[in-house]
Automatic annotation (TrEMBL):
Residues 20-124 form the Impact N-terminal domain. GO terms for cellular component: cytoplasm. It comes from Polaribacter gangjinensis. PANTHER family: IMPACT FAMILY MEMBER YIGZ, IMPACT-RELATED. This is YigZ family protein. Belongs to the IMPACT family. Gene3D superfamilies: Impact, N-terminal domain. GO terms for biological process: regulation of translational initiation.
Length: 202
């Protein structure tokens, strides 16, 4: 089962690519929604208030992915798609790559722009710290104190992460299980008494 994807956990360092007096400042950001994109672009526009173009591409989701590109006033497909091409080349998701252009007075032509935006995105992704993550599902389990050692042993066996715990008269854990292990973990806990397990909607 395909449950591993690549992304970044923190924004990249700023990169700078120059072509015929035009400057292209490159950035990569981890994102989880379109709302993140809007906020990041607003901040970049404050930071670069005299720049001419804020071209970007982003990709969200795994295994089903959705993406969007923007040429932001540059000729059609000369900026956003070359940036997105690098997102595909580096095989990353949940990421936004932005190239901020200051026009230097010399037109680059469509071919020159495509090359410049591709290079800007490539430099940015090369400086980014790319990490592997797993697709996980959340479950809630209820159990009594006398079976806590058994529960802990199973969690350790499948490398399950406890994201939340409530220890009162009885115990309640919210656990994050790697997708490939969900069926097995669910079956084990379902068959154990006195433990109840339920899947949480993501």
């Amino acid at each position: 089962m395909e449950d591993v994807y690549k992304t970044i956990e923190k924004p990249s360092q700023e990169t700078l690519f120059k072509e015929k007096s035009s400057k292209f400042f490159g950035y990569a950001f981890p994102i989880s929604s379109e709302e993140d994109v809007k906020n990041i672009l607003e901040n970049l526009k404050k930071q670069h208030h005299t720049a001419n173009h804020f071209c970007f591409a982003y990709q969200l989701g795994f295994p089903e992915k959705r993406f969007r590109v923007s040429d932001d006033g540059e000729p059609s497909n000369s900026a956003g798609m070359p940036i997105y091409g690098q997102i595909q080349a580096f095989d990353v998701t949940n990421i936004l790559v932005v190239s901020v252009r200051y026009f230097g007075g010399t037109k680059l032509g469509v071919g020159g722009l495509m090359s410049a935006y591709k290079t800007s995105a490539q430099l940015t992704l090369e400086t980014s710290e790319i990490v592997e993550k797993t697709v996980n599902e959340q479950f809630r389990i209820y159990f009594t104190y006398e079976v806590m050692n058994k529960v802990s042993r199973i969690l350790k066996q499948f490398d399950v992460y406890v994201t939340h715990q409530k220890l009162e008269v009885s115990c309640e854990y919210i656990i994050s299980v790697r997708k490939k292990d969900t069926l097995k973990v669910f079956e084990i806990f379902s068959e154990m008494y006195p433990i109840t397990i339920e899947k949480l909607e993501s």
